[in-house]
């Protein structure tokens, strides 16, 4: 169960499965909105889940640990890392204005045209994703230090790491605020699928 997971990398793997669940919701709706949402969600999955795995890797590179309870108060020693982790995590759980929201909502809107109960189940999935991801984030970055003393070994992001993460953050924000160019790119390929239904 994701809520009982104590390894950061495995926790991110659960968010990955959650994203792919939204892809299936959109695909199985066989509606224009659902298929477009599923396609967007695949792209968003690559950005947000890839970003989260990258950030966990940066933590592991510094501390050689991934356990949620091994850390605590990383926000005081690595504020930039904290900012990027929070930003990408919020995108991953579908915060409005970030990339994850658009794909999830379009997938759910497509499914709502076919089955409201299944669409409601997708909404529950969004709430559950926040319920297991946010407490882990809080424990790692804001709670009192755990069994591993993070202060002496943890350093904040290097310039090259920040450059990579800023690029990722811009893409996440752009696809959340202005997804229309990507939707326009996807729709011609998806229209024949809907028409053949």
Number of domains: 1
Q: What characterizes the major β-sheet? A: none
How large a portion of the residues is in β-strands, by DSSP E?
Answer: under 5%
Helix content: over 70%
Roughly how many Å is the radius of gyration? 18 Å
Shape: elongated
Q: Which structural category do the helix and sheet elements fall into?
A: mainly alpha
**Low-confidence sequence ranges:** none
Q: How many strands appear in the DSSP assignment? A: 0
Q: Helix tally?
A: 9
Distance between the termini: 37 Å
TL;DR of this structure?
This protein is mostly helical and 197 residues long. The chain has helices at residues 8-29, 32-63, 74-77, 79-92, 99-114, 116-141, 150-153, 159-177, 180-195.
What does this protein structure show overall?
The chain has 197 residues and is mainly alpha-helical. It has one domain. It has nine helices and no strands. The longest helix has 32 residues. The termini are far apart.
Provide key terms for this protein.
197 residues, mainly alpha, 9 helices
What's the arrangement of secondary structure elements?
Elements: H1 8-29, H2 32-63, H3 74-77, H4 79-92, H5 99-114, H6 116-141, H7 150-153, H8 159-177, H9 180-195
Helix pairs in contact: 1-2, 1-5, 1-6, 2-4, 2-5, 2-8, 2-9, 4-6, 4-8, 5-6, 5-8
């Amino acid at each position: 169960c994701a809520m009982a997971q104590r390894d950061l990398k495995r926790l991110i793997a659960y968010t990955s499965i959650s994203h792919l669940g939204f892809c299936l919701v959109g695909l199985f709706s066989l509606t224009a909105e659902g298929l477009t949402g599923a396609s967007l969600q695949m792209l968003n999955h690559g950005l947000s889940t890839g970003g989260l795995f990258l950030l966990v890797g940066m933590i592991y590179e510094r501390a050689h640990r991934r356990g949620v309870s091994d850390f605590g108060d990383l926000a005081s020693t690595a504020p930039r890392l904290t900012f990027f982790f929070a930003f990408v995590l919020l995108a991953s759980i579908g915060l409005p204005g970030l990339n994850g929201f658009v794909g999830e909502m379009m997938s759910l809107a497509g499914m709502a045209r076919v089955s409201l109960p299944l669409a409601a189940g997708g909404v529950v999935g969004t709430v559950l994703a926040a319920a297991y991801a946010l407490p882990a984030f809080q424990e790692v970055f804001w709670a009192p230090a755990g069994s591993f003393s993070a202060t002496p070994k943890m350093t904040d992001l290097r310039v090259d790491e920040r450059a990579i993460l800023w690029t990722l953050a811009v893409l996440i924000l752009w696809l959340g605020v202005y997804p229309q160019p990507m939707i326009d790119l996807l729709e011609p390929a998806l229209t024949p699928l809907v028409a053949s239904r």
